[in-house]
Known about the structure:
Number of helices: 0
Number of strands: 38
Number of domains: 2
Strand order of the largest sheet: 1-38-34-35
Amino acid sequence: MLILGLGVLVASGLEGQVFTTLHDFTDESDGGSPIAGLALSGNTLYGTVINGGAYSGTVFKLNTDGTGFTVLHTFQELPFRASTNWDGARPYGDLLLVGNTLYGTAGNGGTNGNGTIFTINTDGTGFAILHSFGQLSGSNGPAVLATNWDGANPHAGLVLSGDTLYGTAPAGGSSGFGTLFALNTNGTGFTIIHSFAGYSGEGSPTGRLALSTNILYGGAGILVFAVETNGNDFRTVYRFSGGSDGAAPEAGLTLAGDTLYGEVVRSGVSGVGGIFKVNTDGTGFTTLHNFMLEPTDTLTNSDGAFLYGGVILSSGWLYGTAASGGIWGNGTVFALKTDGTEFTTLYNFTAADPNTNTNSDGGTPFAGVVLLLNTLYSTAVHGGSSGQGTVFSLSFQPRLTIAQGSGNITLRWPTNYAGFDYTGYRLQSTTNLALPLWTTNPPAPVVVNGQNTVTGPISGTQQFFRLSQ
């Protein structure tokens, strides 16, 4: 909260941004390099890291205030010059939380070294492998890709419909370009919905799927595709040209009604990423924002570069991260409206020490964000006090401004900022900060030009003001 006295005149200001490093990874027992995003339930966050000292990553939880960090599972070390273990390794994808159960994928390890699908309870019990991807055969060279029946090296998280999980694997399958699969939550019934062929730009799927009733939507190569959950009617929703519309929709898709929102890694003049929307019938493709680099040799700009985490939607705003770019070239958190207007860089990650890769906040955020009230939560792969990445929160509180004139004071605070709703904040005052007794101020604010506004006379004892929920 911001406290202002009558002697303090603030002409203008943005909202009260509060960045908090919730956890600094050390690459020891807690692991390091969190590429995946977070799952949120109540005041508890769940996530994964791909490294862990001599190990192959961890599953963890912590509270939204940064307390209670707990490792729920440590993936078994991969033996020297071997790629197999019993549980998997390097979980790149976001966790799926259903009740008290987490579902996830590991990109490597398992009995054949090609990754696993796993489940674990939120208290750390009940870890089990639901599927271990099969052995690859054939050359893995440029001419012939290695193939198997079920896919390999899953990088994205899972989606759920009823008791069925759906996901993608970017390698393996009948042509070596990956698969789209389904399996039951108890590990039975593994089925290939689609095996990607790689021709006509079909490419390999890497991002999270979006699900609407019995239709799955995803990105692969230069396509946004749709397919029924039983494998029927695979179709191209949109084919990227690689020009102004971009290419490589590697991040997951977000579905709202009949509109898909997504990101491309390459887009626009600078070729460093863009945000788009397209209707599920393939019409209405729109580039909402093209990220632009400064004309220098450094990866710096005002908005960010290279998008891998996807966007989330809340009250007509999209929120996401860029893994590079920004003022220090270390990534950003951003917001924009669903019509592409009012793009806002919410946070620039600070520069890291070139020798130790350390800083106070983290850097290179590959994952998307989750939102709780006016606070965003996510992970950064690098930086932090040990250079092994962080879990962070970014909250926005309304900023109170005060101006004096003609015997009156006017106090103002916004109704919202970048989609963060400030309904419920009250203007309060006290005459003593040492032993404050805060009272809510009449009259009620009047909205003027998007600002809650209260005007009153300057008289009596000095007062201090704050906004409170």
